[in-house]
């Protein structure tokens, strides 16, 4: 996905924070925010198009590409809940050998 977004000059939306309008923004700032939002929307469509239908349904309501990527990292990252659960199960089922020191 990074390759496609880079080729379309949209890769910055993966890392940049969503710009805020703030109070009394200038026309230039409004245009900048609007451009960023349009680019982020294009990147979201590309990301969602590359997903299986179940993941599409789970992620189509998220507002930014950053939110989609964060959610995917939660689901499939190195410290996913499933992996944490499996590690906890292994830890809690471990047994000491007779005669081992508790210290």
Automatic annotation (TrEMBL):
Top-level division of the source organism's lineage: Eukaryota
Pfam families with a match to the protein in the record: Retrotran_gag_2
Biased composition (Basic and acidic residues): 26-35
Region (Disordered): 16-35
Name of the protein this chain belongs to: UBN2_2 domain-containing protein
Organism of provenance: Cephalotus follicularis (Albany pitcher plant)
Lineage: Eukaryota, Viridiplantae, Streptophyta, Embryophyta, Tracheophyta
């Amino acid at each position: 996905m990074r390759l496609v977004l880079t080729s379309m000059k949209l890769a910055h939306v993966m890392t940049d924070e969503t710009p805020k309008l703030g109070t009394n923004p200038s026309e230039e700032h409004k245009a900048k925010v609007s451009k960023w939002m349009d680019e982020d929307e294009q990147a979201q469509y590309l990301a969602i198009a590359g997903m299986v239908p179940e993941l599409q349904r789970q992620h189509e309501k998220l507002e930014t590409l950053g939110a989609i990527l964060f959610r995917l990292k939660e689901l499939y990252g190195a410290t996913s809940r499933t992996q944490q659960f499996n590690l906890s199960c292994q830890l809690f089922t471990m047994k000491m050998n007779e005669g081992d020191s508790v210290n």
